[in-house]
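=== RUN LOG ===
request id: a7f3
mode: sequence -> structure
chains: 1
length: 240
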Amino acid sequence: MLRRLTFTGIVGVVVLGWAAPALAHVTVAPASADKGATDVQLSFRVPSEEDSPTTKVEIALPSNPPLLGVLAQPVPGWTAKVTTQHLDTPVQTDDGPVSDIVTDVTWTASNAAAGIQPEAYQSFNLLAGSLPDSGTEVVFKAVQTYANGTVVKWVDPVTEGGPEAQYPTPILTLTSGAASGHTGETTTTVATGGSASGSNSSAQDDADTAKTIGIIAIIFSVLALIGVGIGFAMRRRPAS
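=== RESULT ===
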């Protein structure tokens, strides 16, 4: 009987552990691109994991080296604010010197209904006219704000071979290229409208999978409890 109970307990623990949903992170796609690549669309995928809609998403871009010619794609129901930085030393390109770079883009939902609903995700897109032609990666930082006031900062550094970051920064790996440089300081802000059409997605696939796993776990747990009950009943049945 003891062995039966022990086995049942192990099954319950394994099933419940298997059913625990893994937390999704804010990520950037593609995960890698060539150094100096031009006209690259960067898609930041933001999951909404609180019992409240996500109503603001801020993406901070690096300034050394910078991404050049960055444009924010409007999202229906959201407004986009683009922050730029003026460079003391312009970046020389084939199309001439570039004196201003984008350092921050913030999308804000017009209301909670337009936000990213719980157990869904949405993509926020940027078009980079040119990626850095030096370095091995582009590290972004993301700040996610929920309608209930919860703020999640995806700013934890990711180190190879180190402990797993709880809120890792989105990273774009650079795979080949040359070199460049710049400096700068002044910040200005430009607002862009959010009424134009844009590609964004709100998918329930991950949420549906998690729900299915949860239902299966509940079924196994109930069966395990029934097995325990039958075992006790058989043990207490008087011998004939």
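=== NOTES ===
The longest helix spans residues 205-236.
The longest strand covers residues 78-93.
=== END ===
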